[in-house]
Design goal:
This protein has helices at 3-9, 91-106, 109-125, 138-148, 172-183, 204-217, 229-239, 243-249, 267-276, 284-289, 297-302, 322-337, 345-351, 354-359, 393-399, 427-442; strands at 12-19, 29-37, 40-46, 57-60, 64-68, 70-75, 128-135, 151-158, 190-196, 221-225, 257-261, 279-282, 307-309, 377-381, 406-411, 414-418, 421-422. The protein is 38% helix and 22% strand. It is of the alpha/beta class and 443 residues long. The strands form two sheets. Strands 1, 2, 3, 4, 5, 14, 15, 16 and 17 form a nine-stranded mixed beta sheet that branches. An eight-stranded parallel beta sheet has the order 6-7-8-9-10-11-12-13. The chain is globular. It has 16 helices and 17 strands. It has two domains: 3-68 and 372-422, Urease, subunit C, domain 1, CATH 2.30.40.10; 70-359, TIM Barrel, CATH 3.20.20. The structure holds zinc ion.
Length: 443
């Protein structure tokens, strides 16, 4: 293809990079060019020496790795507001004594908007192009995501307690129904969803009702499942069976369910999840910080279940850096299994890209760099002291890189960060607002 022809037929060219497509078995290839047209990947070909794309927007990726954008498959974006507010506590005490009261007092549409903006600034500047979220006042998370241009699944939180924006829990499903109706089809980048907090904090009626709403909207439902032993024991006490069996008995353990954490699953429960087609998201740093336990990520992957990787909210992590999360996931699996061969770098990188996309039901659109897929791509600067020498880019990405190494970020063909400068988030404005809100919280 001549460069002249290229210039006329594409919107954006990423040239001369080392390309990691994340297609099965595909090794990184040097000096490749990715052509983007109408938000999609239009061509992938060797870079022509000296070719000029003067009339088309070009990103020179020489010395960089070009790879699919990272997918944070579980977070609570606006919880950036509570980053560092309460650490080093058991989950139940942390949740009921610190987080729920702070949410009750300080969550407002205004605060959720700016906290989500802060999250998106952090996500984009660390290479995340798609996120899956569950929280309250989610209309504001939608507003912020639309302004920024990031891709995501945004779920309205459902819980059988008075919640921010939903003071009467009797109305939580009505709020959910309206939320799905309002946002379904509104943006090609964003999918609405419902997020049931857990099998303990939502009744059987609520869980079944939420799944019915999601099913009729054709959207996924998310839930924290088997996060702690206490949850397992409570459900065993109340229902006489373990949580996964309980969800199966009430008919919601199915393909449209995204089960987050899954720390305390027995082998039989893993088999059941596989049989039902349920997707799983692993949040290792949150599980470590709250001492919840260790998700058997490798067992789940080997069972053939799509496993995504998530940071969880900032109050239990305390950052949204998916590059650090991969490192933690791989190392946690090794130390807990006693096998250094456990959860190899390429396997966990798949969880943060194509398998994460599969977990969210978006693998036909994103997760790998292939012709026809949406152009969600990041460029990572490899010319850094901690990334050299570069024998194996996958090893470097998982074990050596951090979010600050991401140089350029593209979502749906649009450049959201160029040379580390965020183009759709005014970080100065975000910081000003966040500091003002934090001052109120600190008192
Ligand atoms: Zn969570």
């Amino acid at each position: 293809m001549s460069s002249e022809k290229t210039s006329n037929s594409v919107d954006l060219v990423i040239r001369a990079g080392r390309l990691l497509t994340m297609r099965p078995g595909a090794a990184p290839i040097n000096d490749m060019e990715v052509h983007i047209k109408d938000g999609k990947i239009a061509a992938i070909e060797p870079s022509e020496e000296g070719a000029s794309h003067s009339s088309v927007e070009t990103i020179d990726a020489s010395g960089c790795l070009v790879m699919p954008g990272l997918i944070n498959a579980h977070t609570h974006a606006a919880m950036t507001l509570f980053r560092g507010l309460a650490d080093d506590m058991p989950l139940k005490q942390w949740l009921f004594e610190k987080i729920f009261p702070a949410e009750a007092e300080y969550l407002s549409p205004h605060n959720v908007y700016w906290s989500a903006m802060l999250a998106f600034g952090e996500m984009i500047s660390s290479g995340t192009t798609c996120f899956s979220d569950g929280y309250f006042f989610q209309d504001k998370t939608f507003d912020a995501a639309i302004k920024v241009g990031i891709r995501g699944v945004i779920a309205q939180g459902v819980i059988d307690f008075p919640a921010p924006g939903v003071p009467d829990p009797e109305k939580n499903l009505d709020v959910g129904t309206k939320f799905i109706e309002r946002w379904k089809g509104f943006s090609s980048l964003l999918t609405p969803s419902l997020f049931c907090h857990s099998p303990v904090t939502c009744s059987e009626k609520t869980l079944i009702g939420a799944m019915e709403i999601c099913d009729s909207g054709g959207v996924p439902m998310q839930i924290h499942l088997s996060e702690t032993l206490e949850e397992v024991n409570t459900i065993m006490g109340q229902k006489g069976i373990r949580p996964a069996y309980y969800l199966d008995r009430i008919g919601i353990l199915k393909e449209s369910l995204i089960a987050v954490h899954c720390v305390h699953l027995e082998d039989e429960e893993i088999r059941l999840l596989k049989e039902r087609g349920t997707r799983v998201v692993h949040c290792p740093e949150s599980n470590m910080k709250l001492a919840s336990g260790v998700c058997a990520a490798e067992k789940i992957i080997n069972a053939g279940i799509p496993l995504g990787l998530g940071t969880d909210g900032c109050a239990s992590n305390n950052d949204l850096d998916m590059l650090r999360e991969m490192d933690s996931a791989a190392k946690l699996s090794k130390v807990s299994s006693g096998a250094p061969t456990s959860l190899k770098a390429e396997v966990i990188l798949r969880c943060a890209t194509i398998e994460g996309a599969r977990a969210l039901g978006l693998d036909q659109e994103i997760g790998s760099i292939e012709i026809g897929k949406r152009a969600d791509i990041i460029v990572v600067d490899l010319d850094k002291p901690h990334l050299q020498p570069l024998y194996d880019p996958i090893s470097s990405i998982v074990y050596s890189a951090n979010g600050g190494d991401v140089r350029d970020v593209i979502v749906e063909g649009k450049v959201l960060m160029r040379e580390r400068k965020l183009l759709t988030v005014d970080m100065e404005e975000v910081m000003w607002n966040i500091k003002k809100i934090a001052k109120q919280i600190q008192g």
